[in-house]
């Protein structure tokens, strides 16, 4: 690995994103999200996980090209819109404290940082999206010619599933159970 942007992505940006996601879940748990804003907010969190997870998996497994950059940009903006919806809904139902707000800023900016580093690493693929007569955009999905280390992939994907998706799914289930309890009363 001679490209410092790859090292920064792999060993700083992605771990920081994972830690911020875990910290956000702890904030939700502390604010008793299951009985305040409920399953709806948790469903929004699962949607945001998907919006950053899809580009993450694409970048980890496939050669980054114009198609993957376009998908990453599209999902970044979808994530931002969903984040606005999430916070608008959350503040109407529960207290969103300063620590959680600060964590949210990380969860919004880390995908942007990752996207900027990916674009910097694949500049011609990025610019081909905006040059109709120039370099043709590459739109196929091809596994990486030089894959990332298998242990790294397994650890990142396992942590994302077990410590990000799992807790947010558990949060959703708790919210559904709490809603069920209110319906029976």
Number of strands: 0
Give the helix level as a range of percent: over 70%
Helix vs. strand class:
mainly alpha
Summed up, the domain count is 1
Total number of helical segments?
6
**What is the averaged pLDDT score?**
93
What is the overall shape? elongated
Could you list the spans in which at least 5 consecutive residues all have pLDDT below 50?
none
- Give the DSSP E fraction (strand runs of 2 or more residues): under 5%
Most strands sheet: none
Q: CA-to-CA gap between the ends?
A: 60 Å
What Rg, in angstroms, do the CA atoms define? Answer: 18 Å
Q: SSE string, helix = H, strand = E? A: HHHHHH
List the helices and strands and how they pair.
Elements: H1 4-30, H2 38-61, H3 66-93, H4 98-121, H5 123-127, H6 150-184
Offer a quick outline of the entry.
With 185 residues, this protein is mainly alpha-helical.
